[in-house]
Amino acid sequence: MFGKKLLRSEAPVETDSNEYFEVGTTALDSPGRLNIDIEKLNDFADTDRILKAVRNGSIVFVKIKGLKEKDIGELKRAVERLKKSIVANNGDIAGVEQEWLILTPESALINRSF
């Protein structure tokens, strides 16, 4: 009974067990959608592409494992550049585990209540 109330539409929909009906997706098609990008940081030059995505309003998950295994000094330099740029633009940055960073634009905040 609860499921029938939840999916009830203006006009009754008659279906048998082999038919499906489409549920509206207007909330997903709105122009205010948030982009989440996944990027790899393989060398220092990748920071430009990553920062551009954040400046365009995307939340970016950055996998740093490749550069970490290749050159830890270059990784530190790249992370420092990302951090300075994100903070200067009122964004947020956080490390997740040992291999990921999350970078957000000003419009998003990382909740650190763990």
Any chance you could write out the topology, listing elements then pairs?
Elements (H helix, E strand, L loop, with lengths): L1 H5 L29 E5 L5 H10 L3 E5 L1 H6 L1 H17 L3 E5 L3 E5 L10
Parallel strand pairs: 1-2
Antiparallel strand pairs: 2-4, 3-4
Helix pairs in contact: 2-4
- The fraction of residues in strands falls at 15-25%
Largest sheet: 4 strands, mixed
Helix and strand string, N-terminal first?
HEHEHHEE
Mean pLDDT: 82
Fraction in helix: 25-40%
Task: Put the structure in a nutshell.
The protein is 33% helix and 18% strand. With 114 residues, the chain is an alpha+beta fold.
Q: Keywords, please?
A:
33% helix, globular, 18% strand, alpha+beta, 114 residues, Translation Initiation Factor IF3
Overall description:
- By secondary structure, this protein is an alpha+beta fold.
- It has a domain at 30-104: SepF-like protein (Translation Initiation Factor IF3).
- The protein has helices spanning 2-6, 46-55, 65-70, 72-88; strands spanning 36-40, 59-63, 92-96, 100-104.
- The chain has a 4-stranded mixed β-sheet, covered by helices on one side.
- Helix 2 (46-55) packs parallel to helix 4.
- It starts with a helix and ends in a 10-residue tail after the last strand.
- Residues 1-10 have low confidence and may be disordered.
